[in-house]
Write a structure and sequence with these properties.
mainly alpha, 180 residues
């Protein structure tokens, strides 16, 4: 998001819109085409982290941990003074590599809930909170369940502001964003 904002918009995306370096903010500030480009890049970086881990280490815990660190790196990038995005696209990319059926279900859930409610945050938060439940039913190892629970708590924490804005009817909806 930061690089796309700098390269294509000559802006620091963290100083515009929601002040978030993620695909949702890029969409709101720069339009849906740049938002899609940002989301694809964020998906790809976490996808590759998991795939490379599978290639070198082979284990599911190692691969999930690599994906978790890709999400954390997106949310807290050291090179941007730890001010990144909310990690939804990276979380989806991680799961597309880790368990493709879960990644696809996450994408479908985000799309459906965002369209149904008009708020990207509702789909995002639902995916974060639902991840440990899905992985539990897949019989994942305890370490993966603990990491996914930590990611769910992180997702909740990251979306507190959005929840408050939705309740106050101040959150910008999808329909308003797409009109750009």
């Amino acid at each position: 998001a930061y690089l796309i904002g700098k390269f294509f918009g000559k802006i620091d995306i963290r100083q515009k819109g929601s002040s978030n370096a993620g695909a949702s903010n890029v969409t709101q500030v720069m339009g849906w085409k740049f938002g899609v480009l940002t989301a694809l890049a964020d998906i790809l970086k976490a996808f590759l982290a998991v795939e490379i881990s599978f290639l070198f280490f082979g284990g599911t815990v190692e691969a999930f941990t690599a994906g978790t660190f890709a999400v954390l790196g997106h949310v807290f990038p050291f090179y941007l003074k730890f001010k990144g995005g909310k990690g939804l696209a990276s979380l989806v990319g991680m799961m597309l590599a880790f368990k493709p059926e879960i990644g696809l279900a996450m994408m479908a859930s985000v799309l459906f809930l965002t369209i149904a409610t008009d708020y990207i945050a509702v789909g995002s938060l639902t995916v974060y909170l639902g991840l440990p439940v899905l992985l539990f039913f897949y019989g994942m190892e305890k370490a993966i369940l603990l990491e996914s629970a930590a990611l769910a708590l992180l997702g909740l924490w990251l979306h507190i502001g959005n929840i408050k804005k939705i309740l106050r009817r101040e959150e910008k909806g999808l329909r308003a964003t797409i009109k750009r």
